[in-house]
Each structure stands twice: as structure tokens, then as C-alpha cells.
């Protein structure tokens, strides 16, 4: 065999060896791609599959560092997600801003890009953070291929060497194939996230819809039962019972004075039996808005809603705690129930108004004591089941005119059924049998005041069998006296003010003028000079106009009192100690002192 034949044979053997090596490498690459495809088909954990893909690319392409950067379409940044062969923590956390680095060129062109020496890459693409990370890894040559789905860039798969390296078409094709697999992983993970998000949203929407339908069904049931309760004329109890059953919680209804009139869902918490002051602001808010208002910090009481019709306030519906939170439809249902309660109140008020007018006429005929009407009064009282002869006590309330009917409605249920309650000559009067009934007048006055939201004055004369008209006269004079003195919020006994009410029956302006005419000059003298001549005058009147006894009462020498009396001569005039004037001055000083006591002076 010639030397030329031997050389040709050696070249052919070498070619066949290289081809065999290429085919074996190609077989290895195809096996790796098939394995990657099987992993994609069995995809469960996208992070684990991506990590294996990067590791397989690292082994197959043979670079020093292989890494995958995920693209964020919102910020257009690329964030390193998986690495193999990396030794720098800064590189593993690298973020490539939009327009910077080789990665941005790949995103913009949607094609593979490589550089033999990264340091010599286009200067306008360099960025300090990227350069520092590449330098920390010692990378020189870098190849990157895009991960695409349709026309969207999902990220970039890179392989890099720490020495100069010319990337072959086979390496680029292999890395591109692996990048396609990585694209499938990222797209599948994104689709799964979207599906889970859609599933969660659908589940939440279904839950909201189911809850809304449940609330709506409850509302319809409550509405039908409330209408039936109103038509049946059952009063407030069916309203409370219907609401308590539908909302699975305790419900109570109190009137404008805070008195419990209906309840359901027992046992009642203490906060519903006696409404606490802490709930007052919520009730006022409900009165103003007409809505159901949540109550904070009151155990056992969850919410309140006022029973109102225009400016009229009839009471409050109280709701206890329940197993579920009240939704918007539930709250509207409660508000609708409150409106039904207000309608019931208006209905009852119309009936009560007729009864009030009837009783007021009866009270007026009873206290006017017209002999010709006596028989008629006895007949009408007897029809009410009341023994006229046993009515020996009364209490009189001073209430502003527009609130008297409301005050009578609050007062009547608080007394015995055999008591008469009505309006009489500008006052609210209750007549009753004092032997069988001893009402707590302070409590009644407070209840009326709370209902009408105004101060209330109560006047109580002593029991007087067969003399109620006279007792009413004493009570009215006492009430007018106290009102003239500016007192409108207390309980008073007529006997405590009898000397004054028996003499005076004047209004506030007349009484003020009387006091000013008699002792006003002394008060002005004291105010101007800081003296207490008025105190001396009061002591002089109380001690029967005796200077000696006055001096003893004030613990002064008699000469001091005489000097002060001379000063009073100058202020009041020389004849002030005459019998008629001294009587007037004495009455004025006592009334003035009484006024100070009533006002805490």
C-alpha cells in the first residue's frame, strides 16, 4: 500500500471517528431532550423542572456557568431565577434593567445573541451592576437564547465560559431546544397560576353569590312574616320573634322611654333589659340616619336601629350577638323591620291619641269639679273600672306643650290601669288610688324626660280624699312658682313651697320684676362694692326685725348691725322698715334665697 493510500485511509478513519463522536454526542443530546420532554409531560413542580433543565443545559453544552433569567413584562426587567455553576451570590440575585446588557438585546430581537468577550461588548449596553456581577463570576464569553411563547418573551437561557469561547451552531441549536422546553415550563406555570387564580375568584364569587342568595331568602321570609304579623294585629312580639328566628340572635324592642315592650331569642342579656348609656350614641346615630348601627363595647349588644317616622321617635330595636355577621341585605332587613315597628307605633299612637283625648277630657271634668257633671264623670270613670271615691292622689308634670301627649303615653303604662292620665290646663296629670299605688315619681319623671329629651318638673301634693280639685290647684300654683324661679328639672312637694305658692301665682317675668323692685337695689349695691348687705337683710327678716337677735345670729356686735341697717336706710329708703314694706321685703328676700337654694347657689 502506497503512502498516499495510507494517508487517505487514515483521513477516512479520522473522519469516521469524528462522525461517530458527533453522532454519539447527538444521541446523548437527543436522549437528554427526550428526558426533558418526559419531565414536561409529567410536570408537577415547575421550579424543580426548571432547575433540572438548567443543570442539563450546563452538562450538555459544557459551559462554566448556565443560568435562566425570567422576564417581567411590567417592569421589562430580567431576574436570574435558576443557576448552575455560579459561585457569586450577587450574580444569583442579578436583575437586568430594561435596555441594559446582552439579555435586553435578546429580548428586543427575540433571537439568540452571543459575545466572545463581554468586556468588548457595545458600551451603551453596559450597566455597572451587571458588569460587577459578571466580573464577580469571571465570565468572558456568553451565549443567550430567548424563551418564547407565541410572540411573547418569557425569559432568556444563558451559557457562559470563564475563557474565550467560540459558540458553535450545534451549541446554539441545543441551547435553543432546551430554552423551548423552559418556555413550556414557564408558560405552563403561568397558566396554572392563572387557572388557580380564576378558580379562587370563581369560588369566592360563588360564595358571595350563595351568601347573597341566603340573605335575600331570609329577607323575603322576614318580609312576608312581618306583613302577616301587622295584618294579624299581633303587635311588637311577632316582629321581634320573626327577626330573632331569621337572624338566629336575641332581639328586643324598647319604647322611647327605654321600657322593654317585646323580646325574642331568650335569654336576654342585661344590656337589653336596661339599655346602657354606652349605646346612646349609636341610638342617636340611628335616629339621624335611619340605618342599623353597630354598638361597640357593650357585651351582648351587637347593633341597634331606631323606630322613627319623620321627626317622631318611638323606640329602639336591639340586636344581640349571633353566629354569623350581618350582611348588607340582613341590615336592610333589620331596617325594614324597624319601619314595620314604626308603623305599628303610629297605629298604636292613633289609638292611644284617641284614648288620651278621652282621658284628658275625663281628668279635666274630674278636676274642674262642676257639680252638674258629677254623675256623668262617675259613669265614665266606672266604665273604665275605676272607683271615683278611691282617687285621692295625683302627680303633676310640667312638660313643653308639643311633648305632653308623648309624656302621657310614656306615663300611662307605668301606672296602675285604674289610674287616670291626661292633660289639664297645660300640665300632664296622673290621678290614682294612693292606698294601693305608690309610684316612684323621680323614676317616672326621669323616664318622661328621657322620652321627650327635655327637662321635666314633677309636683306632688299630699293625699286628699275627696279634694283632688284643691290638690290640683295647689300643685299648679307650686309648678308656676317653681317655673317662675327658673326651676324645671326636679321633684317637688307642694307643702315645701306652700307659703310662697299660697301668696304668689305669677309668671317668671312678673316675679323677677317684684324681686327687682323690692331688693334689687341691695343686690346692685353689694355687686358694686363687694359687700353683703343682702345677707344682713335676710338675717334681719328671719329674726323678726330685731337688731340684737340679728347681731347674735351673724355673730357681730349690735353696733355693726345698726351701722349696716343705716346703710340699708340709704339704699332702700327711710321707710323700708314700715310694716307693709317690710312684709314685701321679707317675702322677696325669702323667695330670692329659695331661688338660690333651688339652683345650688
Structural overview:
- This protein has 601 residues and is of the alpha+beta class.
- It has four domains: 43-193, GAF domain (Beta-Lactamase, 2-Layer Sandwich); 233-342, 2-Layer Sandwich (Beta-Lactamase); 369-503, Alpha-Beta Plaits, CATH 3.30.70; 512-598, PucR C-terminal helix-turn-helix domain (Arc Repressor Mutant, subunit A), CATH 1.10.10.
- The chain contains 20 helices and 16 strands.
- It has helices at 3-41, 46-61, 89-92, 101-109, 128-137, 169-232, 236-247, 270-273, 280-289, 328-368, 374-383, 404-411, 441-452, 468-484, 498-503, 508-529, 533-542, 547-554, 558-572, 579-598; strands at 65-72, 77-84, 95-96, 113-115, 141-149, 152-161, 249-255, 260-264, 293-294, 303-309, 312-322, 393-398, 420-424, 427-432, 457-460, 491-493.
- The strands form three sheets. The protein has a six-stranded antiparallel beta sheet with strand order 3-2-1-6-5-4, with helices on both faces. Strands 8-7-11-10-9 form a five-stranded antiparallel beta sheet. The chain has a five-stranded mixed beta sheet with strand order 13-14-12-15-16, with helices on both faces.
- A hairpin with a 2-residue loop joins strand 5 and strand 6 (152-161).
- The longest helix is centred in the middle third of the chain and has 64 residues, at 169-232.
- The N and C termini lie far apart (145 Å).
Average per-residue pLDDT, rounded, comes to 82
Shape: elongated
Rounded radius of gyration (Å): 50 Å
- CATH top level of the largest domain? Alpha Beta
> What structural category do the secondary elements indicate?
alpha+beta
Largest sheet: 6 strands, antiparallel
Arrangement of strands in the largest sheet = 3-2-1-6-5-4
Amino acid at each position: 500500500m502506497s503512502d498516499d493510500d495510507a494517508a487517505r485511509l487514515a483521513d477516512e478513519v479520522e473522519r469516521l471517528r469524528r462522525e461517530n463522536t458527533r453522532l454519539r454526542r447527538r444521541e446523548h443530546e437527543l436522549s437528554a431532550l427526550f428526558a426533558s420532554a418526559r419531565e414536561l409531560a409529567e410536570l408537577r413542580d415547575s421550579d424543580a423542572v426548571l432547575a433540572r433543565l438548567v443543570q442539563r443545559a450546563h452538562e450538555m453544552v459544557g459551559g462554566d456557568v448556565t443560568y435562566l433569567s425570567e422576564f417581567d413584562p411590567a417592569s421589562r426587567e430580567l431576574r436570574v431565577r435558576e443557576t448552575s455553576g455560579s459561585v457569586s451570590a450577587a450574580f444569583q440575585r442579578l436583575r437586568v434593567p430594561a435596555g441594559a446588557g446582552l439579555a435586553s438585546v435578546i429580548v428586543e430581537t427575540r433571537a439568540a445573541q452571543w459575545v466572545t468577550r463581554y468586556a468588548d461588548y457595545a458600551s451603551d449596553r453596559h450597566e455597572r451592576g451587571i458588569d460587577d456581577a459578571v466580573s464577580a463570576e469571571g465570565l468572558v464569553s456568553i451565549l443567550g437564547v430567548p424563551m418564547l411563547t407565541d410572540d411573547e418573551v418569557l425569559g432568556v437561557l444563558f451559557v457562559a465560559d470563564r475563557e474565550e469561547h467560540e459558540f458553535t451552531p450545534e451549541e446554539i441549536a441545543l441551547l435553543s431546544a432546551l430554552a423551548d422546553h423552559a418556555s413550556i415550563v414557564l408558560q405552563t406555570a403561568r397558566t396554572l397560576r392563572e387557572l388557580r387564580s380564576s378558580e379562587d375568584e370563581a369560588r369566592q364569587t360563588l360564595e358571595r353569590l350563595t351568601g347573597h342568595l341566603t340573605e335575600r331568602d331570609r329577607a323575603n321570609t322576614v318580609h312576608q312574616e312581618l306583613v302577616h304579623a301587622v295584618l294579624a294585629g299581633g303587635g311588637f312580639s311577632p316582629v321581634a320573634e320573626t327577626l330573632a328566628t331569621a337572624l338566629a340572635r336575641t332581639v328586643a324592642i324598647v319604647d322611647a322611654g327605654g321600657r322593654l315592650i317585646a323580646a325574642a331569642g331568650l335569654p336576654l342579656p342585661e344590656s337589653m333589659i336596661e339599655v346602657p348609656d354606652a349605646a346612646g350614641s349609636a341610638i342617636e346615630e340611628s335616629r339621624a340616619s335611619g340605618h342599623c348601627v353597630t354598638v361597640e363595647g357593650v357585651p351582648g349588644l351587637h347593633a341597634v336601629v331606631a323606630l322613627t317616622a319623620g321627626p317622631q321617635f318611638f323606640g329602639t330595636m336591639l340586636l344581640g350577638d349571633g353566629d354569623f355577621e350581618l350582611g348588607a341585605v340582613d341590615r336592610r332587613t333589620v331596617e325594614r323591620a324597624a319601619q314595620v315597628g314604626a308603623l305599628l307605633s303610629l297605629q298604636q299612637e292613633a289609638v292611644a291619641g284617641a284614648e288620651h283625648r278621652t282621658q284628658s277630657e275625663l281628668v279635666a271634668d274630674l278636676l274642674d269639679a262642676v257639680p252638674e257633671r258629677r254623675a256623668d264623670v262617675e259613669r265614665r270613670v266606672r266604665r273604665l273600672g275605676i272607683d271615683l271615691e278611691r282617687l285621692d292622689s295625683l302627680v303633676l308634670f310640667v312638660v313643653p306643650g308639643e311633648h305632653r301627649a308623648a309624656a302621657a303615653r310614656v306615663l300611662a303604662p307605668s301606672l296602675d290601669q285604674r289610674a287616670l292620665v291626661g292633660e289639664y290646663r297645660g300640665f300632664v296629670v296622673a290621678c290614682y288610688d294612693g292606698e294601693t299605688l305608690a309610684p316612684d315619681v323621680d323614676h317616672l319623671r326621669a323616664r318622661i324626660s328621657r322620652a321627650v329629651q327635655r327637662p321635666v318638673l314633677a309636683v306632688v301634693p299630699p293625699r286628699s280624699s275627696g279634694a283632688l280639685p284643691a290638690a290640683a290647684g295647689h300643685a299648679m300654683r307650686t309648678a308656676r312658682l317653681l317655673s317662675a324661679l327658673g326651676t324645671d328639672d326636679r321633684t317637688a312637694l307642694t307643702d315645701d313651697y306652700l307659703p310662697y305658692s299660697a301668696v304668689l301665682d305669677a309668671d317668671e317675668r312678673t316675679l323677677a320684676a317684684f324681686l327687682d323692685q323690692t331688693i334689687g337695689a341691695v343686690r346692685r349695691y353689694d355687686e358694686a362694692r363687694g359687700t353683703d348687705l343682702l345677707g344682713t337683710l335676710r338675717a334681719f327678716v328671719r329674726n323678726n326685725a330685731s337688731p340684737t337677735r340679728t347681731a347674735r345670729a351673724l355673730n357681730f356686735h349690735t353696733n355693726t348691725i345698726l351701722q349696716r341697717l343705716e346703710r340699708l336706710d340709704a339704699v332702700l329708703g327711710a321707710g323700708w322698715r314700715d310694716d307693709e314694706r317690710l312684709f314685701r321685703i321679707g317675702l322677696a328676700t325669702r323667695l330670692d334665697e329659695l331661688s338660690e337654694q333651688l339652683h345650688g347657689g
